[in-house]
């Protein structure tokens, strides 16, 4: 968007190598910007497509349907996202309150460098 707006609002005071944007009497500047943005978009699209095709045929873009149906918590991440220890009974799996007491220090001390001599 900014590249196209440059073609509209560009002034020779900012860049003396151009005559100005479309609003300053040089409509071709917008065409130059439109072509440059189109080429950049085509390049990005092509490069992304090539990368996705390579990934699709090497490591794959999706997991198989069986793993997707069962969830990837265990197969990919090695653990469960939720605790189903009561064999599917989810009645007591709501949010839990945890008591946390912040360390005793001033606000400024939290942002000061630690002294290596004081480390335990």
UniProtKB/TrEMBL annotation:
It is a multi-pass membrane protein. It is found in: Membrane. The keyword Transmembrane applies. The keyword Transport applies. Keywords: Ammonia transport, Membrane, Transmembrane, Transmembrane helix, Transport. One of its GO terms (cellular component) is plasma membrane. InterPro entries: Ammonium/urea_transptr, Ammonium_transpt, NH4_transpt_AmtB-like_dom. The chain crosses the membrane at residues 40-59. Coiled coil: none annotated. Residues 1-82 form the Ammonium transporter AmtB-like domain. GO terms for molecular function: ammonium channel activity. Its main location: membrane. Signal peptide: none annotated. Belongs to the ammonia transporter channel (TC 1.A.11.2) family. This is Ammonium transporter AmtB-like domain-containing protein. It comes from Phytophthora nicotianae P1569.
């Amino acid at each position: 968007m900014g590249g196209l707006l440059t073609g509209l609002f560009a002034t020779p005071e900012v860049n003396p190598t151009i005559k100005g944007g479309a609003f300053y009497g040089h409509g071709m500047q917008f065409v130059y910007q439109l072509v440059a943005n189109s080429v950049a978009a085509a390049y990005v699209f092509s490069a992304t497509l090539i990368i996705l095709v390579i990934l699709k045929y090497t490591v794959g873009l999706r997991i198989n349907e069986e793993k997707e149906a069962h969830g990837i918590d265990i197969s990919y991440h090695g653990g469960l996202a939720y605790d189903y220890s009561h064999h599917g009974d989810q009645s007591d799996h709501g949010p839990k309150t945890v008591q946390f007491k912040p360390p005793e220090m001033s606000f400024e001390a939290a942002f000061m460098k630690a002294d290596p001599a004081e480390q335990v």
